[in-house]
Design brief:
Elements: E1 3-8, H1 14-22, E2 39-46, E3 49-56, H2 65-80, E4 83-89, H3 96-106, E5 112-117, H4 125-129, E6 140-141, H5 150-160, E7 176-181, H6 188-196, E8 216-220, E9 223-227, H7 231-234, H8 244-256, E10 260-266, H9 273-285, E11 288-294, H10 301-314, E12 322-325, H11 337-349, H12 354-367, E13 380-387, E14 392-397, H13 403-417, E15 425-430
Parallel strand pairs: 1-3, 1-4, 4-5, 5-6, 7-9, 7-10, 10-11, 11-12, 14-15
Antiparallel strand pairs: 2-3, 8-9, 13-14
Bound molecules: guanosine-5'-diphosphate (GDP).
Binding site for GTP 1: 8-15, 55-59, 117-120
Keywords: GTP-binding, Nucleotide-binding, Repeat, Ribosome biogenesis
Binding site for GTP 2: 182-189, 229-233, 294-297
């Protein structure tokens, strides 16, 4: 999605303006001179269009001094954003720092909107006019604090940003939520970059900063998807030893906030313990799942045979997951991910009516009855799909059903009703 950067000196009201743009009231971070902040990205929505707001707040008065730091901020904004808002304090006028920023931005080919902030009443409009001197076009008077003109400003911002792709809403009312997970170095950030296009990989987050969980909206195959919690993926983070625990917590959190996970595996290497742990997290969470074997460009005939053998043993928990062989490097088959995600989510959402379920099940049980236990033949009395997301079948029985038979029922159920890419849970209630 398009990116808007907001730049300006400390104390001009940047954070307040960012909050206005985001439509929230509380100040996230105050503009206190000397406080170091990092670039922070937020999701904004206005008139049905989504964009990212990059709050380039970090400054470190010191070595190069404030003007240098803010000019560097502007440079960053210019290269990473689709449009730049530069905020100036109309009650103060253009300072030398503002001029340094303006000088950088005048070189920009991207649209620049000059915002004259703190124009709390009409009398300050004259001060606004003085800001023409910055050479950034007409100053846009607003009061971020009182909200004056902020609707007009948002309209101007939308006009300056490139068109956003049309959203395709899932049953939850937003783009479907996707977690991109896998062990380190499997190619997650490479794949994300491939999917979003290089110039969208914009967010730097530095350890120790409180950053909102940042998602990426990605258009694949004519549909917009929300890749959750991608802030950490966009930048190469060199994990020091001992942080694997946190990496795994992060993976878990991403899976849990998603509806479907793309589990990325390295096709060039043997399936590892760590891959299986990630897979288990996905299955246990009940999310839908697509397996993507990355680095397929490195796979030769021999490795391919080897992999076939590993799959039989390695993927016992997810025989139902669709597999896609991709290369983030070359882009191979990356387009196949969207149909696989759709299939998985269709199954995840799907409900089989109680009538259909029971008529199918009675035929199945008649042909292959559950194994006798303790001299007794357990009967399946009734079945119902109690839940979707993931599909959960409750079997009411007259006795214990062995795990093997439950797996058999699950497999046949998948075949009959076409459940692919989603866990199906079978729960048994024994009626005495
Ligand atoms: P992450 O830790 O999962 O985010 O992994 P990265 O995206 O940083 O990738 C790790 C390394 O694998 C980098 O050196 C990438 O260039 C490389 N890589 C990623 N995808 C591919 C691929 O499809 N083929 C090959 N040959 N290398 C890849």
């Amino acid at each position: 999605q398009p990116v808007l950067a907001v730049v300006g000196r400390p104390n001009v009201g940047k954070s307040t303006l960012v909050n206005r743009i985001l439509g929230r009231r509380e100040a996230v971070v105050q503009d206190i001179p000397g406080v170091t902040r990092d670039r922070v990205a937020y999701d904004a929505l206005w008139s049905g269009r989504r964009f990212t707001v990059l709050d380039t707040g970090g400054w470190e008065p010191g070595l190069e001094g404030l003007p240098g730091a803010i000019a560097a901020q502007a440079e960053y904004a210019m290269t990473h954003a689709d449009a730049v808002v530069v905020v100036v304090d109309a009650t103060v006028g253009a300072t030398s720092t503002d001029e340094a920023v303006a000088k950088v931005l005048r070189r920009s080919k991207k649209p620049v909107i000059l915002v004259a902030n703190k124009v709390d009443d009409e009398r300050l409009l004259a001060d606004t006019a003085a800001l023409w001197s910055l050479g950034l076009g007409e100053p846009f008077p607003v009061s971020a604090l009182h909200g004056r003109n902020s609707g007009d400003l948002l309209d101007a911002i939308l006009a300056a940003l490139p068109e956003t792709p049309k959203e395709n809403f899932g049953p939850t009312g937003g783009p479907r939520r996707v977690a991109l997970v896998g062990k380190p170095n499997v190619g997650k950030s490479s794949l994300l970059n491939r999917l979003t296009g290089e110039n969208r990989a914009v967010v730097d987050s530095v350890a120790g900063t409180t950053v909102d969980p940042v998602d990426s909206l990605v258009e694949l195959d004519g549909q917009v998807w929300r890749f959750v919690d991608t802030a950490g993926l966009r930048k190469r983070v060199n994990f020091a030893s001992g942080t694997e625990y946190y990496a795994s917590l992060r993976t878990k959190a991403a899976i849990e906030s998603a509806e479907v996970a793309i589990v990325l595996l390295d096709a060039a290497e043997p399936i590892a313990e760590q891959d299986l742990r990630v897979l288990s997290m996905v299955v246990d969470s009940g999310r839908a799942c697509v397996l993507a074997f990355n680095k397929w460009d490195l796979v030769d005939e021999e490795r391919r045979h080897q992999l076939d053998k590993e799959l039989d043993r390695g993927l016992v928990r997810v025989p139902w997951a669709e597999r896609v062989n991709v290369s983030a490097l070359t882009g191979r088959s990356v387009r196949k991910l969207a149909p696989a995600l759709r299939t998985a989510l269709d199954s995840w959402d799907k409900r089989v009516s109680t009538g259909q379920l029971n008529s199918w099940l009675s035929d199945l049980v008649a042909a292959t009855p559950p194994p006798v236990r303790g001299g007794k033949q357990p009967k399946i009395l009734f079945a119902t799909q109690a839940q979707t997301r993931p599909p959960t079948i409750v079997l009411f029985t007259s006795g214990f059903l062995e795990a093997g038979y439950r797996r058999f029922v699950e497999r046949k159920f998948r075949e009959e009703f076409g459940f692919v890419g989603s866990p199906v849970r079978i729960s048994v209630r024994v009626r005495e």
